[in-house]
Write a structure and sequence with these properties.
Two copies of one chain form a homodimer. By secondary structure, chain A is of the alpha/beta class. The first copy, chain A, has ten helices and 14 strands. The first copy, chain A, is globular. Chains A and B meet through helix 6, strand 14, helix 8 and helix 10 of A and helix 6, strand 14, helix 8 and helix 10 of B.
Chain lengths: 309, 309
Amino acid sequence: MSLLTVGTVAFDAIETPFGKTDKIVGGAATYIAHSASFFSKRVNIVSVIGDDFDMAELELLRKKGVDTTGIEIKEGKKSFFWAGKYHLDMNTRDTLVTDLNVLMEFNPIVPASYQGSDILLLGNIDPNLQIKVIEQLTARPKLIILDTMNFWMTPAFKPALDKVISMVDVLTVNDAEARELSNEYSLVKAAKKIMSMGPEYLIIKKGEHGALLFHENNVFFAPALPLEEVFDPTGAGDTFAGGFAGYLDKTRDISFDNMKRAIIYGSAMASFCVEKFGTQRLKELTHKDIEERVKEFIDLVQFDIEIED
Amino acid sequence: MSLLTVGTVAFDAIETPFGKTDKIVGGAATYIAHSASFFSKRVNIVSVIGDDFDMAELELLRKKGVDTTGIEIKEGKKSFFWAGKYHLDMNTRDTLVTDLNVLMEFNPIVPASYQGSDILLLGNIDPNLQIKVIEQLTARPKLIILDTMNFWMTPAFKPALDKVISMVDVLTVNDAEARELSNEYSLVKAAKKIMSMGPEYLIIKKGEHGALLFHENNVFFAPALPLEEVFDPTGAGDTFAGGFAGYLDKTRDISFDNMKRAIIYGSAMASFCVEKFGTQRLKELTHKDIEERVKEFIDLVQFDIEIED
């Protein structure tokens, strides 16, 4: 089994109420790959970087079973760079710098060796590029998962976003984005409308308030772990998606019931991600850490009520 | 087993994005009693009303096993009246009118027949009055639950609030209030600080995002049911507290594990409350409705993951 993902591999500079970093490695595909690598035997990345990138970081990913063949290195160009600042509530952030650099001319190419990947996870990039990736695949993956954000809901990108949404099985957005996409305030109504646009499954991420999985008339709720401190939320959504997709890939089961488990694993991975800056915490993790964290999720929501039918 | 509660029995006028009401019956103790009456054999209310109150509403409560002996009727005076308007997100509301009326001279008297109540639920009123109720009890109840709000965290009431908090076993507040009370943004840190002020158990209500129960180093999370529409959130917190306390009273078990179940029942009751204006939905409910709703809560969070130890 293998997982194919496309997304940014980039530099971030992050400021939170707890501290700030210089340029550190970030990008959606980086977080996805780190997270998924704990589950998937093989994670195939399609991305683009400049020759300023820290190549040791790619080596680290390769050691974890990530195939970086599809990461194009543009000589003489700079990697995508984002700088941002979070406020105390960690739900809002100000973008300080966005240097698209190599991302401006990104034309994703899926290497021949990536064909036949079982699951495709489209990280948050321009929907036109996400479509290009789908169109290059010789066989449709068993499951296509799409992550996106409000930026692509603006008129210039909305037609492409609508198109890619119609092509996928699972969409992940946050609560504000679900409302924007559907023009519905109620998340239940929003979910129905969005599922009518194509995806059979919808995941609505609510940050510290957990995540909802919708499918037909069913809904599953996964809590977020109450943490003493959210140190840096950067990449939490990507880490969640990577854990979710990686778990589905590993278990070879894309049923609704298994997606519930996958969401718990994704949430557990995200709960680690926010404990330190960037990918630092993900790099230190062991499988034992993950199992213990999942156990905490079980304890958090478990109760026994006998209903008399 | 019996439950004693103190709180307002009053009139409300409510405006939401879905409609508005004239004067309807409301007040914390009204919602608490309606909700608890589905579980407790006997609910004893201490409150005060004017002679303008709709006495048929008291008769309705009595038919449900609520003892209204402790509701003082002030001749020639008017009942407490509140008018408010909710916005689309239902988390914020503007108070349009607050006519304290009989509440200005409320001096709660616990009737002799109420002595020996097993559980005391102090509804959200002036903490000085909550203390007066505790001090009138000849034997300490098995469990004292305190509901309060940000209004009593202002300097004029804070000393009394701190005192009553130190006297109780369970405190329920919302997330903003937990932060204000503790001066901690992290709810985990806030919970530790608040439990050090007295209560062994803390419930943090997060509205549409569910509720957290803290006890020592344990935490339990109960989701809110994702609803198509929150029609009117008035009284949801009181209904939650009433269901929680009523369930504990009925089951004669105040352990942490049983409190988890009680929170699910309280959440189920609150999910009904918001479906119609005022107490209307609570008045129509059957036990079968409640069991079916609790089943929905179970389905919402249930997943099976086997952890290898």
